[in-house]
Amino acid sequence: xxxxxxxxxxxxxxxxxxxxxxxxxxxxxxxxxxxxxxxxxxxxxxxxxxxxxxxxxxxxxxxxxxxxxxxxxxxxxxxxxxxxxxxxxxxxxxxxxxxxxxxxxxxxxxxxxxxxxxxxxxxxxxxxxxxxxxxxxxxxxxxxxxxxxxxxxxxxxxxxxxxxxxxxxxxxxxxxxxxxxxxxxxxxxxxxxxxxxxxxxxxxxxxxxxxxxxxxxxxxxxxxxxxxxxxxxxxxxxxxxxxxxxxx
Length: 248
Fold this sequence. Notes:
alpha/beta, 40% helix
């Protein structure tokens, strides 16, 4: 795996920090709601970097690139694939949905917890991790990563949370819908069987809408199942990226 680099670019007046690590064909990695490039599980990211050069968060002018999107990052990945089909090599969608009326939505209670910024950063971290993982795993992840998640939550502004929540609402009003049938790039869809944030039934909706898509479901996996199965998921993604598109 190559050395990691960190840099900043300006896009439409906003500052975007991105990381690059690994060697191989480029893979753009898009994180989810209120998350940063530093929030990925390190075992998962380094497993991917053993095969690809990861660009977390910006594609930096590559002519063609594969894209991985988790949760809200999956909404962005689908949009990029639909708007710029000639720029997308392969598409990997984790814990995401097709948007619009086709999507199965979480309960209002879960959504309220997801956007709740009350309490201390550690209160927010515990609440978030209880949504990302099944109950018997959430406490273990809090003991391991609670301080890191709390530090990240302390840097988030309510305005940022509200703007990203509004973007998610817009996706669930409009979404990709029937346009998904026009995606010609090879697609891998993966979900955790116990995801309460984006119900796993959405993975079936995506695989039924996108021609020749792969589907993988990870048992007892939560919304952030890549942290429960870091090596297994990275191996699956590396295998998918390695296969010649003509053979898919």
